[in-house]
Fold this protein.
Amino acid sequence: MQHASHIDSRGSQDIKYEHGDHLTGTLSPNSVESNVLAVHPDEGFDESEIKSIRRKIDWRLVPPLAALYAMSLIDRTNISLAAQAGMSRQLRLTIEDRYAHAVLAFFPPYIAFELLSNIGLRKVGARFWLPSAGVLWGISMLGMGFVNNHQGLIALRALVGLFEAALFPGATFLLGCWYLRRELAFRLTAFYQVGVFASGIAAILAYGFSLVRTGTIAGWRWIFIGEALITIALAVPGYFLIVDFPSSHRCTFLNEREKEIVATRLQRDRADAVPDSLTWGKLGKYVIDLKLWGYALCFGCTTLASYALSYFAPRIIASLGIATAVRDIYALVIPPYVAALPWGLLMAKISDKTGSRLPIIMFNACLALLGCGLFAFLPATKGAGRYVGLFICAAAANSNVPLISAASQSNIRRQSKRLYTSAIVVGFGGLGGIVSSLVFPERDAPLYRFGMIFVMGAQALVFVISGMMAIYFMAANRAAARGTRIIEDQPGYRYQV
């Protein structure tokens, strides 16, 4: 095997990995204390070789994770489509805000188990952990097709939340450990937006299932049954397709030379190619890192908008006066999510290319506020204009979700901190889901004006927090350039603003 010592003449040392991880050969620069700006991540490597490795990683990571996340979004939000297809009437969900309670039940276990799930993911490995989660929430979703009361629906929604807690933070953590900071936003956006796109066109799938009539099983039940079976069918191949962390002995799709290149580029970019355990001491330091709470608050406010659209879009569209049949309502759910895909990819591409994170997040927050405002304040007779507002809000909010996640992963070091950050940020996304279920009560239907105004306030808060963080990061970078500050305990490290 060819060693990496030819890459950098300043010397190297062997890297020791924990929890069964290993990487034969050497890394350069290898010291966690090395100056990350001293050498460009790609220096000494052939550009075509780097592109070939990156292409391998892209195809092995993004498509299987995106497929699982697509079903994750579909399974957590298909309750709104089932409600339109007759579930609300049969289970009497319009009484005492039972529908909102069923929506809300998903989130407490989803939030509570994210950090524990990430710890399990690091120890057990992504290749087993994430597909197993998909199989388990698929089985829980299957049970929702056979419930006969709202209590059973709420209990199974909670189980789906428990098992889905593994996927989004786990995938964010995994992707963050594979890519350079300047490569991450586009990959996270592709992973996320494919899921959003699929959840949008899933309205067609749900409508098709709702038309199925077999014995005493109503059409709305087939939405849960059919989509659960698809989830399980997509999760099983994940045991063979999803790859583990780059330092793991279970990661076999790259040869040793390619693994060395991946590790060396990561080390030069942010000096954290070496896995480290999450200890109580580190956890205490991470908890008091205010920038992580800033990202978490922005993420929660953004997911408030995206969840509100997911759970209440069919009812909102029904109020516009431009569609009355269930079929037409389902059809009108799709276009805003289709439009969100190219917009999100464009914003992510610009963000990675320029290294600009927070200004783009602020721009999207303004667009989301505008979109919500069009829906909330245009007269009820202006159904087309209010529908355009949904387009704008869906595109902007769903663009910001992966951008905020990528920004939070781009301004930290150490893999243990990535593990914690992905859990805490996505956990606040769950809080956004809880709030969305509370600020859209049944009594406000069909306009949901209070809920939309609340979402607008949340987007304004994203703008303010992001602006304050941008000012802080620029000041910290200037201090680091003067030599009066060391960022993230790493000489030469700079925040991406």
Summary: Residues 88 and 206 are 15 Å apart (CA to CA). The chain has one domain: 59-245+280-485. The first strand starts at residue 13 and ends at 14. The beta strands are 13-14, 26-27.
